[in-house]
């Protein structure tokens, strides 16, 4: 690993000094405007292809590119909602040319640029796999404060809450639980297992430029865990001088019978970016603060939604040393405190139940990009994430349940994209290393206190207990070759990984393996508006610690912890997908429809074996390999309907079936917590220019939920229950006021209007906190205000 990082740093040193000759002022300029029909378009990206140079149009739809090199260049104008256009222009030193663009609407966004499907920027229509994008506009329309609130609005994706105490959540793609999906930040797999426990709710939406979701196996490009899908968080890019400030205030649990008091939830966010006049240097900064009170849904004195406090700060900087290269740096820090249970004004160990975690997450990245041969792009990157977590998972005034966890994740890699006539080649290598150290902290041993003359003179303390000390390292070499003949595109790729997992708690026991993960995709354009795609991919999960292992369910009667079987083997997947993608303008109506079938075979599938409580009420869930494996299959449907400029509809529906080959716990083959059907619907209407009305809905079908509450005759054996279906419906109204180049937006709305929310939460100190399902929020109201010059209507 050290030699690999030194190679990366040496590459920076070798190439950066060679760009000095490109800094000369040529006074070769291009100016112009971008219009659609007779309307000037603001904030359109203007890119010089084959270079890192670019800008955006201003509020009046005009742009300028200064001091270009003499020669013939291809200039591209692109923005979400319009078809991109390219023009070739020859420019000489000392001359200024005018280049204007007229863009056509693309309300279905089939020509938007995506990067996650093939590790290469290309139009969504040309991607070999389907890539769904969750845009800032959609997040704003749904009033999604954090990442987790926006993920429900993508086909095949569902967020779920898994703990009644602390709000531990995870994302499921195509019916498979969280660890089957790879979370990326700017395309890098640095989102660690420790971050994954609460991470999707940690990340505020205002730091995200967009979210790209790829369903199906992606291990051929992204390595371990990319089995169900890949979620790529692309952070805010400084594109022009801009600013935005907003305040959101709300109340959760409004008008609910027998519930505790409604709980306040407010947040403040700020974004700003500045770009130099020559577009060579830019910086964006973002900040976020949230304070959320706990909510008791059934009036038993214990929270169903935790208390949360989040403070986030981050920045992204870039500098172009020359015409064909660019250095980008990212940094953000998230500090979050959360606590669930009761007696929030007391220390954790004086509560009847307390699940409390304090996170301090620091993430940084450095990326260098260099163009060669006009269109070839070479990139080198180093990324890292450090998380410190203080925790308490305890009940009944226990002093022995404080913990401290530290996780460090580092990724270093390089990638080369070579383009030829009708073909594209991507090759690269990447090393990912993650260390995890988890301790249970020592506590005062009152039982053995030394007493003299009825006075305590000495209180012995227990030592810290090492719970986990694991290091995993994965080195991968990957490649992908794309070739296009007329209407047919074939992509063949693969990744060879060598992983090693070292567990210091078992005297340095090591598990390692070599895994080759291939992927083959076929795309055929039946018509310009109709594509069919077929793909096969292989993936794997290494036998390491996963997200849920770092969360402990706690009650007054039992405490659930997770561990791996010593003989746990690698899990392997084989996935096949086929889709039909239709996008067409029918008169004034734009219609998009996607039908996507998926089938995944899991060999040596990971399953939990439930243990019996010991004398202290501790229950161990042991991860082992299922005999006979498992299968996950189904279909995702997506419909986009845009009859005109003022109205749009997006919807998605998933039907799926998940089964083990042999019966598991409760003598059941079906996956738990996995509905056979779920979906979403969003509507957006602009009756007048500055007024917007939107609605969002989520449907969750029936699912099997294990229950281990003390209302049972034998709670240690538990029982399997089937939940009711849910339909979560919300509405939002927003109004924009123009203020001298800025926009002031006022908005308000209601989430889960009909309070389609779980009604049978377990109660009291001995409750089963894992018995939770359905929508994440009860009926909630909110209002807010934003001001900025780049606001989404």
From TrEMBL:
Residues 125-230 form the TonB-dependent receptor plug domain. Keywords: Cell outer membrane, Membrane, Receptor, TonB box, Transmembrane, Transmembrane beta strand, Transport. It comes from the Bacteria. It is a multi-pass membrane protein. GO terms for cellular component: cell outer membrane. It is found in: Cell outer membrane. GO terms for molecular function: siderophore uptake transmembrane transporter activity. It holds the Pfam family CarbopepD_reg_2. One of its GO terms (biological process) is siderophore transmembrane transport. Residues 314-753 form the TonB-dependent receptor-like beta-barrel domain. Belongs to the TonB-dependent receptor family. This is TonB-dependent receptor.
């Amino acid at each position: 690993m050290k030699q690999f990082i030194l190679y990366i740093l040496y590459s920076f040193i070798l190439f950066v000094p060679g760009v000095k000759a490109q800094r000369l002022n040529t006074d070769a300029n291009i100016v112009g405007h971008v219009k659609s029909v007779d309307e000037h378009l603001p904030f359109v990206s203007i890119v010089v292809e084959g270079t890192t140079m670019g800008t955006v149009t201003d509020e009046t739809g005009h742009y300028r590119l200064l001091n270009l090199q003499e020669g013939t260049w291809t200039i591209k104008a692109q923005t979400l909602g319009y078809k991109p256009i390219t023009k070739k222009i020859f420019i000489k030193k000392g001359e200024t040319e005018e280049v204007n663009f007229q863009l056509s609407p693309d309300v279905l966004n089939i020509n938007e640029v995506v990067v996650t499907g093939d590790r290469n920027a290309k139009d969504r229509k040309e991607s070999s796999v389907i890539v769904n994008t969750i845009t800032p506009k959609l997040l704003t329309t749904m009033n999604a404060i954090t990442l987790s609130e926006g993920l429900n609005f993508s086909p095949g994706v569902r967020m779920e809450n898994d703990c009644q105490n602390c709000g531990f959540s995870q994302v499921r793609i195509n019916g498979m639980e969280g660890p089957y999906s790879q979370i990326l930040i700017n395309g890098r797999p640095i989102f660690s297992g420790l971050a994954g426990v609460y991470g999707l709710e940690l990340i505020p939406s205002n730091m995200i430029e967009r979210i790209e979701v790829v369903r199906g196996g992606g291990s051929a490009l992204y390595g371990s865990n990319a089995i169900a899908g890949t979620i790529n968080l692309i952070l805010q890019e400084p594109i022009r001088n801009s600013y935005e400030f907003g305040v959101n205030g709300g109340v959760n649990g409004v008008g609910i019978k027998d519930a505790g008091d409604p709980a306040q939830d407010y947040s403040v966010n700020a974004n700003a970016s500045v770009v130099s006049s020559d577009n060579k240097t830019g910086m964006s900064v973002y900040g976020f603060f949230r304070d959320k009170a706990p909510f008791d849904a059934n009036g038993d004195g214990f929270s169903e939604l935790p208390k949360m406090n989040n403070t986030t700060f981050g920045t992204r900087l870039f500098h172009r040393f020359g015409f064909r290269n660019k250095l980008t740096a990212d940094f953000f820090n998230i500090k979050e405190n959360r606590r669930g249970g009761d007696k929030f004004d007391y220390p954790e160990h004086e509560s009847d139940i307390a699940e409390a975690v304090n996170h301090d997450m620091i993430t940084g990245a450095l990326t260098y990009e260099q163009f060669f041969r006009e269109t070839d792009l070479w990139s080198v990157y180093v990324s890292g994430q450090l998380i410190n977590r203080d925790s308490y998972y305890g009940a009944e005034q226990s002093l022995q349940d404080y913990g401290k966890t530290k996780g460090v994740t580092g990724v270093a890699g390089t990638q080369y994209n070579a383009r030829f006539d009708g073909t594209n080649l991507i090759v690269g290598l990447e090393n990912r290393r993650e260390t995890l150290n988890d301790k249970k902290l020592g506590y005062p041993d009152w039982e053995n206190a030394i007493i003299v003359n009825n006075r305590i003179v000495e209180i012995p303390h227990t030592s810290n207990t090492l719970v986990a000390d694991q290091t995993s390292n994965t080195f991968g070499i990957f490649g992908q070759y794309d070739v296009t003949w007329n209407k047919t595109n074939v992509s063949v790729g693969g990744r060879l990984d060598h992983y090693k997992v070292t567990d210091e708690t078992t005297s340095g026991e090591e598990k390692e393996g070599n895994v080759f993960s291939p992927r083959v995709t076929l795309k055929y354009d039946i018509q310009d508006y109709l594509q069919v795609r077929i793909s096969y991919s292989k993936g794997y999960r290494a036998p390491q610690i996963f997200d849920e292992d770092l969360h402990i369910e706690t009650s007054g009667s039992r405490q659930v912890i997770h561990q791996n079987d010593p003989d746990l083997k690698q899990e392997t997947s084989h996935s096949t997908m086929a889709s039909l993608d239709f996008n067409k303008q029918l008169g004034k109506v734009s219609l998009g429809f996607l039908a996507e079938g998926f089938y995944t075979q899991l060999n040596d599938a990971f399953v939990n074996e439930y243990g019996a409580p010991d004398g202290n009420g501790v229950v161990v869930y042991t991860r082992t390999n299922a005999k006979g494996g498992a299968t996950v299959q189904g279909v995702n449907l997506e419909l986009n309907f845009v009859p005109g400029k003022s109205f749009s509809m997006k919807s998605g529906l998933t039907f799926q079936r998940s089964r083990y080959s042999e019966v598991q716990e409760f003598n059941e083959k079906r996956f738990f917590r996995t509905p056979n059907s779920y979906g979403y619907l969003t509507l957006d209407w602009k009756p007048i220019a500055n007024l917007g009305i939107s609605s969002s809905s989520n449907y969750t079908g029936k699912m099997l939920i294990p229950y281990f509450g003390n209302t049972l005759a034998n709670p240690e054996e538990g029982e399997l229950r089937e939940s009711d279906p849910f339909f979560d419906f919300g509405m939002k109204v927003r109004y924009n006021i123009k203020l001298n180049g800025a926009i002031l937006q006022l908005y308000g709305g209601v989430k889960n209007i009909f309070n389609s929310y779980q009604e049978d939460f377990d109660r009291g100190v001995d409750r089963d906190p894992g018995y939770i399902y359905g929508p994440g929020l009860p009926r909630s109201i909110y209002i807010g205000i934003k001001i900025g010059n780049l606001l989404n209507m």
